[in-house]
Every structure is written in C-alpha cells, then in structure tokens.
Design goal:
two-stranded antiparallel ribbon, Rossmann fold, DNA-binding, alpha/beta
Length: about 525
DNA sequence: ATCGAAATAT
DNA sequence: AATATTTCGA
C-alpha cells in the first residue's frame, strides 16, 4: 500500500489516479467528498462501515494509496479500529468536532493528519502528499543507525530546505501561509522520530541540539518535512534526487534510559553506530545525528564550523573518557579517541577540556575550604574518610564500567564535596550536566573526577595553590620527602577501610586504574621513584 | 602536529 | 555571563 519512491517517480501523472479510500458514515457527505476528489482525478471508493472498508483495504483486488476516515463522534471505535488495522495506509482522519483528545488519539494510532469537517478543498487536493511522505519516510526509516550526537550542517539543512523535496514540499509554493494550527502540520506517523532540529540560539533549546550551525536555515526544517496541505500547488514533480536527499538526511532518534551503563559501541569514523543515552535526573535526553552525507553540490562544504552543544550525555562521555585516562593523561586527542563520537573534533574536545579544568580549579578550592571549616580538626585520616563518604554511598550494585569508574576515580581525589554535594550531587551513577544546571560550582566534577593536582591537598602544594589550607600541617610534616610515606599511609587506610567494610565498593588502590591515578598524581608531586603502575 | 591558555565570538 | 571557537606560543 505504501508506494515506494521509485513507484512514485515512475508514476507519470501523479497524483492522478491515486486511489482513495473514503470511510464516512454520513453518506451524503461522503458522496460530496467523493465527487470533489474525483474532480481532482483521484479514484475514490466510499464506505460507510469500517469492516467493509477494512476488507477492501486488505483485499488484493483493490489498492489504496490513502484513506480518509471519519472519526465518528458516536462510534469512534470503528475509526480507531480502522486506523490500527490499516497501519500501512496513510490515513487522514476527519472529525466534525474539534477534540484534542480525539485528535491525539488518532495521531497516536497512526493517523497522518486529523482534519476538521468540512474539509477544505486544498487539503483534500493535497492528500497525495501524504502518500509521498509516507513513501519516503518508509525508505528513510529502513537504514537504522544509532547515534550519539546530532549534527546539522549548513549544507545539509540547506539541502533539506532547498533541494530536499523541491517541488513536493516546497514546490515553489509559499512555504507557510494560512496554516491553521494543529491542522496540517502533522508529520506522517511513520516518521514520528522526525527530529526537531533546532537552533542553538533558538529559545535556548540547548538540550535538544548537539550540533548546529549558524542560526539560519533549520528553523523550518520540520515543517518542510511535514506535508503541506494548505497552500496552492503545482502538479507534483518528482525527482529522484529529491528522494535521496530525503532519506540521506534521515534523522533517527533514540532514547534509552541506561542508568549508568556505558556505551561500548566501537564506532569508527565513518561508521554510524553509536548509542546510549541516559536519563539523568528526570531529564531524558534524546540524541541523534544526521547521517552525514557528502553534499553532492559539495563545492563550499563546511564553510562554517559546526557548533557542538555539549549536552549532558556528550559531557558524560567526555568525563568518562577523561576519567579513563586519568586527568593528567587526558589530552584532547586521547579523549577524542575514547569518546568515539563521530564528528567531534579535537578542537572541540580541547576547548571543552579547558573549560572543564577551569571549572574544576575554581570549584575545588571552595570545597576544600568548606570541608576544612566543617571539620577543622580533621586529621588526615578522618578527612580522608570523610572524603569517601560519597563513594561509599554508592549502592553496591554498580556494575561494569561504571563501577570501575566510580571506584577508580572516587577514592583519594574524590572531591570532598560538602555534606550536601556529597550524596546529592553524586547521586547515582552519573552527575547531571553540571555547568548549566548547577549554580554552585561545587558540584562541578565532584562525582568521579580526580581533581587536578593542586586541588587535593594532603600535602602542601608546591605550586602554592591549596586554597590557603594546609591540611598536612595537622598531620604531616610539610616536607615533600614525606610524601612517599604519606602515600603509604593513605593506601593503608584505604585498605583497612575496605577490609572492615567489605560490602562497600572497593576504594582506591585496590583496582589498577586507581593505582594508576594515584601514582600519576604522586609523580606529579615529584615522586618519580615509584614503579610505574601495572595495568 | 598537538597542547593549553588566552583572546574572541556568540 | 556563560560557553564555544579561534588564535597563538611552546
């Protein structure tokens, strides 16, 4: 029932001869519509009973391209039944009374559009667009791909807008006028995942867009894709390129709530396969990406740089990568590798890293201060323990990589986090997007980040940057040659702690990554005599 | 060529 | 004001 793009292309005088199934209990109205449709060279079969209509729809003898079904006020079930049964058939619902609920239900059940009676002639005439839309969206859906980020490049957008479906959707017709809200802008049900590509600057919809370009173009993307039924229109003029454009630019969205499970997709550049999202703090994020396709008119490709919107998901990936590498070893190129995000550049990462570090630098001293002020008499040990609170607070069953990360990262340098930030901000598995959401910089990077050197202060900082607090003064001689000894003590403590509370996640030092981090930190402190960590 | 910090841009 | 990009010296 769904035409293929090829069929459409070969359909010479499309939409003439389009077969319309008309289901309406009002016989008079039905025949009125019928004659209108026939005047438009459509071939119409009318029915007043959904069962008849259905059997006709499924019969082999008759082929329908589109259905117009009345959603009866008295017996809407029948209409819904039709909708549900005839999924493959693009179906326009007609209703005599405006009812949001009904409309929603229709759409939910797959209706392509819900129109109010009396149906205006233009809309009637334009029902062919649904067929086309369906045809292409069916094609578009097939190549499945997961993605992590949505990229919208100028050209792609422009292509969509201009070249996209030249005559079908833009068709030299006025893009948008006399559009009655809610009436004619429903995308085909088969493309529910049509991505809203929004501008970064637009209405601050940061959470939706990962990539965007300059602020033009995209605005009407969605509308362009949805069938325009109102405006005047010329005879459709199919072009194959149009179709291809169409499905090249398919955007797929997905949305799984993986709590702290880390994506392990091994994506290589060029391959599209990349997944995972997590819902954090009630913010379920959608991610998607426009499959990249070299613009045929490639001339001035990528004039402007894409702008990366660091959503929490992206950031999460980033953070994971940084952790995996250890803050010290985390350099843009490595991070980039680990992130495996297609389209992301080293520059993007570098920039983000810079910001990230900056935030940390600012956040940590504060925290440090607070901690000290709360427990002024803390010895090294107790403060150490205190620092671990949040870590320990992790419910044991954090599996897989996440557990690893949590364990590896939290230990020594887990930022003390004030009481509040401790549990709250650390909240399972992953922090929320810190920059935009957290007023208090404290939260920044608390979760699992080893703070930058200079921020943790068991010892006097040789860079003099320890927030004016010298913990070591209370417990340790401030000489750097004690560091070694001190480190041992720390480790001992951790071990002791772990042994006495076996039900808690293993803290620092009991897992290779942590050790590595510790050692690298130590070496930063000038202790190079410690043998390199074994992975 | 890459890194990171600073300067710019949005 | 926040945050992304570009530039520039090492």
């Amino acid at each position: 029932m769904v035409c293929t793009p090829d069929e459409l292309v070969e359909w010479e005088d499309f939409p003439k001869g389009l077969r319309v199934l008309l289901l309406d209990r009002d016989v008079n109205y039905a025949s009125e519509i019928r004659s209108k449709l026939e005047g438009m060279d459509y071939i119409v079969s009318t029915f007043c009973d959904e069962d008849e209509a259905l059997s006709a729809a499924f019969s082999n003898s008759e082929v329908f391209h589109v259905a117009i079904v009345e959603v009866s006020t008295v017996k809407c079930d029948g209409s819904f039944k039709f909708l549900q049964m005839a999924k493959g058939l693009p179906t326009v619902m007609t209703a005599s009374a405006q009812c949001l609920t009904t409309t929603m239900k229709c759409i939910a059940l797959g209706a392509i559009e819900v129109l109010n009676k009396p149906i205006c002639e233009d809309k009637l005439r334009n029902i062919w667009q649904h067929v086309v839309h369906k045809a292409y969206s069916a094609v578009a859906e097939s190549p499945k791909q997961e993605s992590t980020i949505r990229m919208v490049k100028d050209e792609e957008i422009r292509d969509k807008l201009r070249g996209g479906m030249p005559c079908l959707f833009d068709g030299g017709c006025n893009d948008e006028h006399d559009r009655s809200p809610g009436d004619d802008k429903y995308p085909a049900p088969s493309t529910p995942q049509l991505k809203q590509v929004r501008l970064l600057d637009d209405a601050g919809c940061h959470d939706q867009t990962n990539w965007s370009s300059e602020k033009d173009s995209v605005a009407h993307y969605e509308e362009s894709k949805s069938v325009e039924t109102t405006s005047c229109n010329a005879a459709p003029d199919m072009s194959l390129e149009a179709g291809e454009q169409m499905h090249e630019s398919v955007v797929k969205e997905e949305n799984n709530s993986a709590d702290g499970c880390k994506s392990e997709s091994d994506t290589f550049p060029g391959q599209k396969n990349e997944a995972e999202t997590s819902s954090l703090g009630g913010n379920t994020r959608k991610q998607s990406k426009v499959s990249e396709s070299p613009s045929p008119c490639g001339a001035k490709t990528n004039r402007k740089k894409m702008k990366v919107d660091w959503t929490s998901d992206l950031h999460k990936k980033f953070v994971q990568a940084v952790e995996q590498l250890g803050v010290d070893q985390a350099i843009p190129s490595r991070i980039l590798e680990l992130m495996k995000v297609e389209g992301l550049t080293r520059h993007n990462v570098a920039s983000h890293l810079q910001k990230y570090r900056m935030h940390r630098r600012h956040a940590l001293p504060k925290r440090e201060e607070r901690r000290i002020s709360v427990r002024p008499k803390d010895t090294m040990q107790s403060s150490y323990y205190y620092q671990h609170k949040p870590v320990m607070a992790y419910p044991p069953p954090y599996h897989s990589n996440l557990t690893l990360l949590a364990n590896q990262a939290c230990p020594v340098w887990a930022t003390p986090g004030s009481h509040t930030s401790g549990l709250h901000a650390w909240g399972p598995p992953y922090q929320t997007w810190p920059w935009k959401t957290c007023a208090a910089a404290d939260v920044w990077g608390c979760p699992v980040m080893p703070p930058l050197h200079g921020s943790y202060s068991y010892y006097p900082q040789q860079n003099g940057y320890n927030g004016g607090v010298d913990i070591s003064r209370n417990s340790m001689p401030p000489n750097s040659h004690n560091d070694h000894h001190l480190a041992d003590e720390v480790v001992n403590h951790i071990v002791k702690e772990a042994i006495s509370k076996p039900w808690l996640p293993l803290p620092l030092g009991l897992k290779p990554p942590s050790t590595e981090s510790v050692l690298s930190e130590l070496s930063k402190q000038g202790i190079s005599s410690i043998p390199p960590p074994s992975q």
